[in-house]
Amino acid sequence: MTDRIERTPSETRERLLAALRAELPAACELRRRLHAEPCVSGQEGPTLKQVLDALPAAAAPDPVAGTGALVRIGGDGPAVGVRGELDALPITEQTGVPWAATNGAMHACGHDVHLAALVALARAVDRTGGPAPLIAVLQPREETYPSGALDIVESGALAAHQVRAMVAAHVQPVLGGGTVACTPGPVNACADEFTLIVRGSGGHAAYPHLTRDPIPALAQIIVAAQQLVSRDADPMVGTVVTFGTLEAGTAPNAIPGEAVTRGTLRTMSESWRAQLHERFRAVAEGVAKAHGCEAEVRILRGEPVLVNDARLAAEAAALLGGFGHTVSAPLRSCGADDFAYFAAEVPSLMLFVGTDTTAGLHAPTFLPADESVAAVAESLLAAYLAAARILVEPGGAENGATSLACGASLGQQW
């Protein structure tokens, strides 16, 4: 490997970009192989093997989180982590391409693109050298609970590998091709799942006065809960209350004793998050009681708010322009990603990469073009270089735990 210290930042950047682009044909082939053989959350072993086989031969994997691994590229010392998600979704593909998946699973969220782009970047850094070591974070279970990212954080693997910053990129069809969002501050919401059970007393549909019908009680709770968004939440803070499933009854002429709904609570504010839970419980219990029923609310806490480090975002945006990409206006959404767990530990950056496709994320027809591999790879390169520049500056995170704590605080300033 070429010595990193012998080259200027601009020389390093140009050599890495050239090496990355040379890797793209093989990366596109890898993307198609990964796409054709998807593995759902918790069963990512075959996908992990394909990715490890494509990484530089000298790179030894460090197993983590069951079906994941961390792979160091570029020597010892403080490093930049680059995340790639291994898992697919339990969706039957409807794209019709020759390399479509046929096993009832599908890379309908672009993880195949992300992994191929990460491999291209890792091979480029291995071939030409980079300003800092790169840790390929091959993460399982991004799409389900328990979170693979949280497991990696709690395992201590990031600290063991001296990861001082984390970066990632995600395809995003709401942006056009050639456009990348590099937004500082909160970009994704925290996401919690709830189960709400309304219990009454069932009976014959012809004698409702002899029952305590949980269905109208639940219907009123659903309506009342929308006021949490319009009247309880600060209008400047994104908040979502969504009911995704409804289950009640087994016969049209019988009133059931129980009605169940499941959904999600999301917000862009960690401080409002706890209050949202409290208000949701109060509304459910109060409305149910008014109907002579009882409500039980169970909330499963998910990802925290995803906060991009402001300095990383600014550095990466400048580099992206030099690579020929258009940096979009700030993009924030109440979508969620467990990359947020990494961002809560070290300065981090999630980029959203535009792709020209008419289908949305998680749709059975979602299929970014091969050009998306290049766009994601170059976006990851910009983020990696931005993080490396911050790491190697005087007072940067390579100086140890104190500077790491200071760096992590950058991501919490919003």
- Which residues form runs of ≥5 with pLDDT under 50? 1-5, 397-414
Per CATH, the superfamily of the largest domain is: Zn peptidases
What integer value in Å does the Rg equal?
24 Å
Task: Give the ordered list of helices and strands.
Answer: HHEEEHEHHEEEEEHHEEEHEEHEHEHH
Protein name: M20 family metallopeptidase
Domain Peptidase M20 dimerisation: 193-289
Pfam families: M20_dimer (PF07687), Peptidase_M20 (PF01546)
InterPro entries: Amidohydrolase, Bact_exopeptidase_dim_dom, Peptidase_M20, Peptidase_M20_dimer
Structure description:
The protein has helices at 9-36, 45-54, 111-128, 148-155, 157-160, 214-225, 227-232, 270-290, 310-322, 339-343, 371-392, 401-410; strands at 61-64, 68-73, 79-85, 134-139, 163-172, 179-181, 185-188, 190-199, 203-204, 239-248, 254-255, 258-267, 294-300, 306-308, 326-327, 348-354. By secondary structure, the protein is α/β, with parallel strands linked by helices. It folds into 2 domains: 4-188 and 305-410, Zn peptidases (Aminopeptidase, 3-Layer(aba) Sandwich), CATH 3.40.630.10; 190-300, Alpha-Beta Plaits. Helix 3 links the parallel strand 3 and strand 4 (134-139). It is elongated and about 80 Å long. The two termini are 40 Å apart. The model is unreliable at 1-5 and 397-414 (pLDDT under 50).
Which characteristics define this entry?
Alpha-Beta Plaits; disordered C terminus; single chain; Peptidase_M20; Aminopeptidase; M20 family metallopeptidase; 2 domains; Amidohydrolase; 414 residues; 8-stranded mixed sheet; 22% strand; Bact_exopeptidase_dim_dom
